[in-house]
Amino acid sequence: MDILLKYFPELSEEQINRFAQLEDVYRSWNAKINVISRKDIDLLYERHVLHSLGVAKVLQFKEGSKVLDVGTGGGFPGIPLAILFPDTEFYLIDVIAKKIKVVNEIVNALDITNVKAEQRRAGTFEDRFDFIVSRAVTNMPDFVKWVRKNINKKSIHELSNGILYLKGGNLAEELTLFPKATQYNLSNYFEEDFFETKKVVHLPIKYKL
To answer: How far apart are alpha carbons 91 and 31 in whole angstroms?
Structure first.
């Protein structure tokens, strides 16, 4: 928890309590259904929670906005972002049913009311969102194909509606087709070695009928 307060000192008491409960709840469920690697569970707050909150260093979601988390796995980045932005509506999807089961159990245990999680495949529904977030589920060209029809027309944020993608390494080749993409180095916000090559990529996507 200390690492979260280091970078997000403005957390409310309710947010602190929810974040503090994450470790016990994840440890309990991870022992039954593995959604986090054994080595990473001891580094949950750095490698999963804080990494997810890297999105918040790039953009603060406004009240009433809607965010889709594609390939959420064990609930990242959606659950930490939902705790941080209680007035934003989050929809978490994954194709693996047991992962969504864990997500729903954690959401219920922490009484997080702004999250809906379902077993669904991206590209199979018409709902629209201000932003689509994800942690490196596939390459950017394929990801854009999956989600480009799910972008809201009206933008209410400083950044244009589109994708906020957590990914690491050299992305130059992958982003060749997307000259409007902006890379934000998480090492500019977090000093831990883990974040040295980690980025948030913002890719504006135009609304399509």
So the answer is: 25
